[in-house]
Amino acid sequence: MLVNRKVLTLDEFTIQQLRSFPHATGELSNLLRDIGLAAKRVNVEVNKAGLVDILGDAGAVNVQGEDVKKLDIFANSQLVGVLSHGISCAGIGSEELKEIVVFDDEVSNQSKYICLFDPLDGSGNIDVNVSIGTIFGVYRRVSPKGQPCTKKDFLQPGINQVAAGYIIYGSSTMMVYATRRGVNGFTLDPSIGEFTLSHVNIKCPAEGRIYSVNHGNFFQYSDGVKKYIDACQKKTKASGGPYTQRYIGSMVADVHRNLIKGGIFMYPATLERPNGKLRLLYECNPFAFIAEVAGGKATDGNRRILDIEPTELHQRTPFFIGSSSMMDDLQLYINEN
Ligand code: AHG
Ligand code: MN
Ligand code: MN
Fold first, then answer.
1. How remote is the C-alpha of 36 from its chain's centroid?
2. Which residue owns the Cα nearest ligand 1 atom 11?
3. Ligand 3 midpoint to CA 151 (Å)
4. CA–CA distance, 41 with 45 (Å, rounded to integer)
5. Does the pLDDT of residue 22 top 80, yes or no?
6. Where are the domains of the chain?
7. Whole-number average pLDDT of the chain
8. Atom 2 of ligand 1: nearest residue by CA position
9. What kind of fold does domain 10-199 have according to CATH?
């Protein structure tokens, strides 16, 4: 991975990419810029979360039956706002909304893309000043242009994503997005309020030494997963000693770190949650797409995540993602047990 010293903003970069596609319309660049704008607004609120009354539960429960934090609602409304006012998105699906939202107006009906997102990931960490994020996936609609988009546009396998990305609100704020051509990272430069290209052509190291999993659930995991975790802890000196365990509880932060440094992140099925916790459409698919473009892998322990044909907007899946050789190793343990 190169760190580019020349400042190229997100807009400049996406426009530069367009130049090599003479027939491109620029719709995707517009959409990414819209998401970037919403992210900047969320970032401002995240940064002052300790100062104003936007911390804590909003007193509502989202469609998943989980407590909704105020920033979740704020982030959701910012994303819905920019995408509905923009000209590049025909509709959205969000973790915070039970049903898809169809932007049924003349301009949006002409748009070729739809977007799925988790407006705020790791919201349990807001109150304690720990990194949180936003996750999104973009698909070309399958319904005809000129008409309102439909649920079918949202229930596509992840492999159909045109672009996917995330924003991490961390010690700095970064937007990372992937198209089939590569994964690039943009760090928010607060002095000019722009995301600027900082991580060019991110590749996930094939080998890593970090494993990320909620150990509290250990005794609920399958034998294969338990034995793999055991093996992570028992690596011999010859193989470099035991792996390091890191688990923040914000998937964006955990997977971002492992993407850059090499590692594996797991949210397996548990006795309480036989389908795992994470949502396929707007949490797992975007990260699976990013990981694969970067050379990593993502599965549900059995199938490639990107091949799963979704049936529901909010469906969950067990999730394993990371460095290719660690994922291969995990698969051996799962297959043997
Ligand atoms: P969200 O805040 O969007 O509901 O997602 C939280 C997710 C994910 O970010 C994280 O990896 C996982 O929940 C943590 O779950 P556990 O506390 O069960 O480990
Ligand atoms: Mn989430
Ligand atoms: Mn969320």
1. 14
2. 251
3. 21
4. 7
5. no
6. 10-199, 210-335
7. 93
8. 122
9. Fructose-1,6-Bisphosphatase; Chain A, domain 1 (3.30.540)
Direct distance between the N- and C-terminal alpha carbons of the chain, in angstroms, rounded to an integer: 37
pTM of the complete model beyond 0.85: yes
**CATH 3.50.50.60 applies to domain 210-335:** no
Pocket probe mutation, ligand 1, options 71, 277, 278, 284, max atoms within 8 Å of Cβ: 277
Percent of the chain with pLDDT over 70: 93
**Amino acid (1-letter code) at residue 256:** H
pLDDT digits (tens, 9 = 90+) for 271-297: 999 999 999 999 999 999 999 999 999
Enter the DSSP assignment of 275: T
Looking at residue 128, what is its pLDDT? 87
**Judging by beta carbons within 10 Å of its beta carbon (0-12, 13-18, 19+), is residue 31 exposed, middle or buried?**
buried
Does the CB atom of residue 253 touch ligand 1 within 6 A?
Answer: no
pLDDT of residue 174 exceeding 70: yes
Q: Which one, of 147, 140, 57, 72, lies nearest residue 109 by Cα?
A: 147
Q: Is the pLDDT of residue 54 over 60?
A: no
Cβ–ligand 1 distance for 123 under 6 Å, the answer yes
pLDDT single digits (tens) 66-79: 665 688 999 999 99
Task: Say if ligand 1 is within 6 A of residue 324 CB.
Answer: no
Q: Is the dihedral of CA 91, 94, 312, 297 positive or negative?
A: positive
What lies within 8 Å, CB to CB, of 34 at 6+ separation is 82, 83, 86, 88, 89
The angle that helices 285-293 and 251-261 make with each other, rounded to 10 degrees, is 10
